[in-house]
Amino acid sequence: MQNTPNKPLHQPDADALFRYQVVSTILAQEQMGQLRPQAIQIVADMVHITPNNTTKKVSHRTLYRWLAAFEARGFAGLQSAQRPHTPSSVVIPVSVTDFLKQEKMADPQASIPELIRRAAGNELTEPDQSIHRSTVWRSLKRMGVDTTRARARKDRDCRRFSFPHRMDMVMCDGKHFRAGAARLRRVALFFIDDASRTVLGVKVGTTESTELFLNGLYQILHRYGTMTTLFVDNGSGFIAHDAIDVLRNLNILFIHGTAGYPQGRGKIERFNRTASDQMLRLLDGNPDIDPDCSSLELRLWHYLHGQYNDTPHGSLDGNTPWSRFKDDSTPLRFHQPPEALLKAFVLNRSRTVSNDHVISFNGVRYEVPRGLASSKITIQHNPLDNSVGIIHQNRTVRLSPLDAQANARDKRAKTSAPDEEPARNISKTSAQMAFDREHRPIVGIDGGFSLPNPSNTSPEKDQP
Asked: Tens digits of per-residue pLDDT, 175-188?
């Protein structure tokens, strides 16, 4: 359907994507056999990394609330409610909120119940007036007062895990290396099945970008089906909003492993050491190696499926990773229909069209069809090929980057002539009336060439 300014936009916010990341960690802990209270305790003790690369801890009460909302309404339950912003409170008087703000800033360690008692001690509240601490907390947050309290770091549950079946968990990690005589920097993203230790695929690029990660993920899903949980490290391409949004569309649980989060890290680091000893270290400075990313990807693919996956593994009782993977009785789960997989990678983003029919996305300007100036539209971004398009007049239109040099020389389109304005009755002013009276024309409006009146003319008079 056609984009209209009044059409609702379906774009998840960063807070909802972070909540989905945390809820995925809880569900993954339950999948490993933990009871829900134990899973909540483990996740509450973790220090989570937000998509903005900041650390954050989540309380037990919030985790239960997020989990209940996700189980009841899915991802929509994790979206933030749009509420009108008020700088203070509509429940607590201004004199009380000002006092609470001053006390909290003067004594940051004071709890909210203590602040309420201080307000009552100063007779700022009525004796029978009850102020809920949640109301005070929200008022302080709206006023920009920091309400967090320093807490001692607790030991986290760092037990190692191993999933029993294939595609229960897939681990993804980037390994940086150098290749070719010029020693160019490259990174390889490896996708490793946790149960069988099979390396499902590899993607080579120049940096750990979101596009590189999503292209590798699409190849794995297309070839082996979907996984239940995906474990990634602290790479910038993994924790970007687009990457989490795609995983949410695919219903894949997401675990973000930090540097101090050992679950899964030991297996990844052990594989990285093996791959470096057997393959990657021999690429550095080698003049026989083509440093092109496609060429390196082909070499690594041949190494993985021709050597590593067919070599007996110490943790698999002497079995090879590929034999353990193919002998697993758990069926692979593919998206049906196949077009649904590609559709899950298309992300909706909102942009405002400028007066000259241009939008900006990821630092690139795109031209949009005419008629959408100064309106908000929903664009469809496909990170697999980095294309941008919109639905315009019931068809998909792929947008092209702005070519300002071509526009400077291209002929302009001809526009239809504007409709003539209807004649208006303009009243004469007194000055115009005086001018017409003083300067009458010598002849009448017909110029003195009026035809004779036919009623006064007879045929006899016209005859000679």
From this structure: 999 999 999 999 99
User: Is 261 inside any structural domain?
Assistant: yes
Q: Residue 116 belongs to a domain with what CATH number?
A: 1.10.10
Q: Which residues of the chain have pLDDT under 50?
A: 1-9, 461-462, 464
DSSP code, position 200: E
Handedness of CA 295, 299, 300, 305 (dihedral sign): positive
Q: Residue 281 maps to which CATH number?
A: 3.30.420.10
Query: Residue type for 153, please?
Result: R
For every residue of 329-395, DSSP letters joined together read -SPP---SSTHHHHHHT-EEEEEEPPTTSEEEETTEEEE--TT-TT-EEEEEEETTTTEEEEEETTE
* Closest C-alpha to 64, from 30, 29, 34, 26: 26
Answer whether 239's CB lies under 8 Å from 233's CB: no
pLDDT digits (tens, 9 = 90+) for 69-85: 999 988 888 887 665 55
| DSSP conformational letter for 413 | P
The range of the structural domain enclosing residue 382 comes to: 346-405
> Could you tell me the CATH number of the domain that includes residue 400?
2.40.50
